[in-house]
Amino acid sequence: MRHKERPLLFVDTNILLDFYRAASEKQLSLLRRLHEVTDSLITTDQVLMEFCKNRQKVIGDYIGTLRVPDSIPLPGVLSELRTMRTLNADLKRARQKLGSLENRLLKMIEAPSNHDPVFQEVLRLFGTSTNLSLSRSNPARNRIRRLARKRFTLGYPPRKDSDTSMGDAINWEWMIHCATSNKRGLVIVSRDTDYGCIRKGETVINDWLRIEFRERVSKRRRITLTSSLSSALKQMSVQTTSKERQAESQLVAPPLTLPSAAFLQKLAIGFPTLQPTGTESSASPNPLRQYMESANSRVWEEFIAWAEAHKKK
Predict the structure, then answer these.
(1) What superkingdom does the record give (predicted)?
(2) Fewer C-beta within 10 Å: the chain N or C terminus?
(3) Per-residue pLDDT reduced to its tens digit, 185-243
């Protein structure tokens, strides 16, 4: 694909911060792929600021999860077993290794330029100055801020009801400016709902943003929203490996969420005889259908176990 036929690409802060959850080098290599499209990458100081603002907290939260018990409590009669002595020795070695890992993470917080590979890649990306970069030295900065302040005050998307910052508005106004001046389409990569709806892994751009893009940029230019960086790179004609795509899918996959206790309680009390979705008759539809259509088998198993325990009480 020729340069002018490529859409422009905007990568939201949450995508960059998610790389701290990367479990393999393949996930980080996907971040490095962005260097192949720097001539089409929209960047703002707002995104860089948000990344630097939250980076330490993300790493700190991870450090807080690194815990190994001091020992495994057992009855005294078993305390002299060789297995227990071996297990306690293993726990001691595990604590030592976690201590080394924690020290490395602390170095990432204290000296990111030397010890944080994600920080280094992000700084390289945002350090490349192009006509798509909104930095303090860009003369368009004040005009973009005025437009952003207006749309934020009027409640225009992208924004959450609880937002107190107009950061998303600044990013959007700059995207519109870049797409208009370069006469190109736009791909937004975000796992936030500010820019649209995310349902079962599928993303749809917010209705008003789509209408606004057509009116302010062009009816012939396309705007798309995706939660997958590899999918966005594919639209940019950048080849990614199957291992990179598989590694990213682990980041994109939504966490398992169980229904609230109140919801389960009402179901268990109101419907003592529970059946999996699909076994009910059309005359008496199972009220679990709507919930289970969006849940997975693990949720169902957890629910059945809870309901059975409730009936025994």
Answers:
(1) Bacteria
(2) C
(3) 999 999 888 999 887 778 999 999 999 999 999 999 999 999 999 999 999 999 999 98
Residue 231: exposed, middle, or buried by beta-carbon count in 10 A (0-12, 13-18, 19+)? middle
106 phi, psi to nearest 5 deg: -65, -35
Helix (H, G, I), strand (E, B) or coil at 11: strand
pLDDT in tens, 34-78: 999 999 999 999 999 999 999 999 998 888 877 766 666 655 555
Per-residue model confidence (pLDDT) at position 281:
46
**Residue 182 structure tokens:** 């370069």
* Of residues 167, 168, 175, the one with CA closest to residue 140: 175
Reported residue count of the chain is 313
Residue 239 three-state SS: coil
Report which of 281, 302, 299, 283 is spatially closest to residue 291, judged by C-alpha positions: 299
The residue behind tokens 């422009």 is 8
φ and ψ of 228, to 5 deg: -115, 120
Q: What's the confidence (pLDDT) of residue 302?
A: 56
Here the tokens at position 121 are: 């890649």
Task: Tell the residue number behind the tokens 């997958």, with chain if given.
Answer: 228
Per DSSP (E only), the strands in the chain are 8-11, 41-44, 133-134, 186-189, 196-199, 202-205, 223-226
Q: What is the DSSP string of 138-190?
A: -TTHHHHHHHHHHHHHHTPSS--TT----HHHHHHHHHHHHHHHHT--EEEE-
Q: Residue 24 phi/psi, 5° resolution? A: -150, 165
What pTM was estimated for this model as a whole? 0.74
What is the biggest distance separating any 2 CA atoms in the chain, rounded to whole angstroms?
Answer: 78
Query: So what's the pLDDT on residue 160?
Result: 82
Segment (H or E) for 29:
helix 25-32
